[in-house]
Amino acid sequence: MRNIVIVLCLLFTVNLFGEQKEKEDEYILLISSYSSRYPWPKMIENTFRDEVGRMEGRVKVYSEYLNCDRFSSSEIWLERMRMIIRNHASRPPKIVVLIADGAWMAYRKAYSGEWGDVKVLLGGVKDWGMNFDRYCDKQHLSANDFVATADLCKRYNATGLTERVGVNKTIHMMKRLFPDTKNVALIGDNCFYGIFASLLAQKFIPGEHPELNYIPLDGRFLTTDSLLRRLRQLPEHTGIVYASWLQDVTGQTNDFERMNDNILALVGQPVFSLSDWGGKGDDFIGGYYYSSMNYGQRLAGIAVELLHGAEPEDIPLHNASDDFGAHLNKSLVVKYNLDPAVVGEPVTYFNVPLYFWEENRRVLLNAL
Fold this sequence. Notes:
Blueprint: H1 2-25, E1 27-32, H2 39-55, E2 60-65, H3 74-87, E3 95-99, H4 101-110, E4 119-126, E5 128-129, H5 132-135, E6 147-148, H6 149-155, E7 158-163, H7 167-177, E8 183-188, H8 192-208, E9 213-218, H9 224-232, E10 238-244, H10 256-267, E11 271-273, E12 286-289, H11 292-307, E13 318-319, E14 325-329, H12 330-335, E15 347-350, H13 354-359, H14 361-367
Parallel strand pairs: 1-2, 1-3, 3-4, 4-7, 7-13, 8-9, 8-10, 10-11, 14-15
Antiparallel strand pairs: 5-6, 12-14
């Protein structure tokens, strides 16, 4: 009897050690569509990693990068995704986090069950996606090619936080702050985000804002030199909305910060943005978008639920609408003597001048 008890104890100890070892081996694999130097996804990634570490210290977060911002050929980042899947096949991740639409498209095209029924967590993916093969024919894309992300999630054991692109809301803000606006130009590059924004503008501006003349500056059809030349020739009373400009029609890639600086210096007027770029965005006047930091924190919260046993189908696909709102550059509001009250809803300010804090110190301290 004593020997039986000893054997049972040994078996229990071995089993307990095995379970503990299995938990220690659990990891999350984060695959970003972009390179590690790109500010917006990097802020989401860093916040996500910090928050997961705070809540689940035993779980490691590893990162891979498709570099869609550096390679114009979608076939290159598809092969990169296939290589990542092969490299992790012997020890699959507990969760794979896909940041932005390039990674989501490539994953759906490349994945053939190598990681089993792995849980997929989406971040920075739009409410509507596209088929990878259809996306390769960029110049012939239209809004009719969109596929609901919620439908795609059911096929790939996925959930997460989708992202709205606030073209319509940002134009409403522009018209209220600058009521003399007669034209609107949207700058969208030859990458997914820029194409998505351009297709939304093409679909909605004529119907929602018929009084505005729409000027498409679409990277599927323009070189970088052509874009800069068109910007110099914009008519008076033209509002500018910026999505991104990483690649042009030739596949030429541009440094993110330098290109932004060139555009802002060239136009000499406020430029609205569709994203919290997470870099030196202090020269944009603002727009409707999300906070990258809050986005990463919310994504981590869903990851922890999945680690604790929840299945993606148990967690509805969320639109991060709580963090979507009006943002304005306080320094430019002051410079152009604008009245933020005309926006008609709460505004989050950034680039607030130091003198503003000094002048309002007493009010702010009393509020605390």
